[in-house]
Amino acid sequence: MNDPRKAAFEENKLEKKLSRLVGQAIGDFGMIEDGDKVMVCVSGGKDSYAMLDILLKLRERAPIQFDIVAVNLDQKQPNFPAETLPKYLSSLGVPFHIEEQDTYSIVKRVIPEGKTTCGLCSRLRRGILYRVADELGATKIALGHHRDDILETLMLNLFYAGKLKGMPPKLRSDDGKHIVIRPLAYVPEKLLERYAEDMQFPIIPCDLCGSQPNLQRGAMKQMLRDWEKKHPGRVENLFRAMHHIVPSHLMDREAFDFTNLDIDGSIGGALGNLGARSSGDRGIDEAELDELACGTLIRGVYN
Question: What is the pTM of this model?
Answer without folding.
Answer: 0.84
